[in-house]
Amino acid sequence: MTRADDVHRELRAALLSGTFPYGQRLVEEQLAERFNTSRTPVREALRRLEGDGHVVRDRSGGVRPNAPRVTATRELYAVRTVLEDLAVRTADPEKLEPLQEEWLELRSERDESPDFVYADESFHEAIAHASGNSATERYLHDINERIRVIRIHDFTTVDRIVTTIEEHLEILDALRSGKTDAGAALMRVHIERSAEVVERRVGELLTRMFEEERP
């Protein structure tokens, strides 16, 4: 793991916890001092965070935390729900066995890292891949990238990670047993629950940050 990897991980955690107000400019020199490193790994970390949607550049080239837009996220979740429904209804049950084994292993390992969101995305995209519809898989991947910055807030507590793993396994059990309608219903509830948690936690974060900025 490089120094840029370390800075990326620590800075992302700080952004997700609300350490930096959304209007605050992230200055390379100050961040280098904060993380006891040079500007080069900070610059690389900021570039990666920008690619993930955690930060944005303003017109002057300055970097600032990217404020979640709840309305836009709701719209993307609505599209995601349609794509996921299509994926589960057309997925080949035989192609889901490796995915089930992977998530049974994850359940035993109790993965609680901040990178769990990537494992979650991989799960949903694997089901889309099993459907054989490349367009569904491609569009779902695109939406996942666009909402990742806000979906990470769904996995800030251990209980949500544990619940997500169990829900994934329930969906796979239904699909591999040929219970397509049941699997689709479980998937719909799974996504709705995630959206509710994300919206609530982001709302709490924005409220807290607004109150802290008030004189």
UniProtKB/TrEMBL annotation:
InterPro entries: GntR_C (IPR011711), TF_FadR/GntR_C (IPR008920), Tscrpt_reg_HTH_GntR (IPR000524), WH-like_DNA-bd_sf (IPR036388), WH_DNA-bd_sf (IPR036390). Pfam families: FCD (PF07729), GntR (PF00392). Keywords: DNA-binding, Transcription, Transcription regulation. PROSITE patterns: HTH_GNTR. GO terms for molecular function: DNA binding; DNA-binding transcription factor activity. Residues 1-68 form the HTH gntR-type domain. The keyword DNA-binding applies. PANTHER family: GLUCONATE OPERON TRANSCRIPTIONAL REPRESSOR (PTHR43537:SF24), TRANSCRIPTIONAL REGULATOR, GNTR FAMILY (PTHR43537). This is GntR family transcriptional regulator. It comes from Solirubrobacter phytolaccae.
